[in-house]
Amino acid sequence: MGNKFGYKKIFFAFFAFLILAMAGMMLFFVGDIENHRSAKLSDAINDAVREEMDRQNKQTTALAVAIAGNELLASSLKDRDRIRASRVLDTIMSSFDGYKDGGKFWLQLHTPDLKVFMRSWDKSEYGAPLEGFRKGLVYVQKTQMPFSSIELGKKLNIKSIAPIKLKGEYVGSLEVIKNFDEAVKNFAEKKISLLVLMDNKFLDVAEWMVDYPILGDFVLCHREYDEKLFNELKEDDLYLFIGRKKSFSKNYFLSIEPLRDLSGERLGFIVAAIAKDKAVAMMKSDEDVSLLFQASKEELSTAYKNRAIALYGSGEMKKLIQSEAKKEKIKNLSREELENIMLYGEDNEIKKGEIR
What we know:
By secondary structure, the chain is α+β, with helices and mostly antiparallel strands. 49% of the residues lie in helices and 19% in strands.
């Protein structure tokens, strides 16, 4: 009788252990699946961030290359005629679709020895040396090729630089400077909050950002932002999210992408955040958010028209957009074809296709 009772105890103990082991394995696999889904969502968001920043760089590069090709501007720079250069810049900027309200982008002209020739936002500035802290400018001067990146200067922002040539002679460079407001707005329309953060150790260079909002060891690079997210992160340890030891704050799912310059030096981070309930739903459905951030047909067509304005002036552009054949051609171009035309001109082979 005693032996039978002992066997029952052993059997029940083994059965209980087996159940606990199976429960533990299930919890492990469920946790592993959740971690996989979390990593997949984070990667998709980071891909969308990289795609948006790449689009911003392409857009500003197209503008820089187009404006730098204006012969009147080139001759003004060569002759050191600041009055004429000022008039050309004002005419170009006032003609661009979507930029008439100001504050969307700024222009800067440089002499061949990398000194300020003219700034669109401060016409009085002249002769300030830039070589010491502007890597992109040095690169363009040496290679005489256009270049675009997120670069450190008086502010951290998107800078696209194109060489200016007159009859083959390098006479200086043109820079288009753009902040992160448009990228932040594009993501906000998709219910995703974006925070572009610069390491505060760079404030000695980015001296025009000393009064920008502070988040721990970082400085926010834009004035418009999700205050709820910003204040929530003030109460949390951002480095836990940076190291992917943590994905959820109180109300958000966070994904963080390093921000680097052309030499690979880390300047800060880009934080993308989705409301927690939306992120959980997306993780369950495996929705690919990277598909949500492609440039619209209207945005690309506007950029195409702006390029023509920079090259030919508003009078020629008026004739261009009044042409039914030209409008039809724009409508039938694919996204890749529009981007190539903005960058390289319209002499390339054109293949018709729907905007993708």
